[in-house]
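[agent] plan:
  1. take the single chain provided in the ticket
  2. run structure prediction with default settings
  3. attach structure tokens to the ticket
  4. add a short note for the reviewer (M.T.)
[agent] executing step 1
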Amino acid sequence: MSNQTDEIKKVSIIVSRGSLDGVYPGLIMSNGARMEGIEANLFFTFFGLDAIVDKRMDKLSISTVGNAAMRLPWGQKMPTWLGVIPGMAGFATYMMKKEMEKLDVPPVREFLQMIKDTGAGIYACKLALDMFHLTKNDLWEGVDDVLTVGDFYQKSAGGLILFT
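[agent] step 2 finished; step 3 output follows
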């Protein structure tokens, strides 16, 4: 149980994984923060950059290999070896997108735009961009800026930092 009595005023969320199940938690949490009037920043680093690279953001998928939490459509745990079967990742991605569509969860690009429209900050990690030989021109037009880790900490000052 938390003894926190202060109201949360700001969150900065780090997204480091580029799969659908790695990106959506950060999007959902930042959207929820904005809906509650909490200032929110999203910081995309390492493979999480795929969510804001313009040519990749609409093609995110579910990783089935080594995903011990993966379940079959009827709820049974999926043996991890099934993840290596050709087409399994595509099938899992299709199923996840269908379920999200039923719940009216928007696709990544649309969700990011909605979050940006609420005033949230969307940032890319400079080190990760350099490491993957990307430039700001490769990013979705809604990205506010490319930040160093030090810049990110300054933007996050006074708030909570969450790592998804």
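[agent] step 4 note for reviewer: The chain has two domains: 10-58+107-163, 65-106.
[agent] ticket updated
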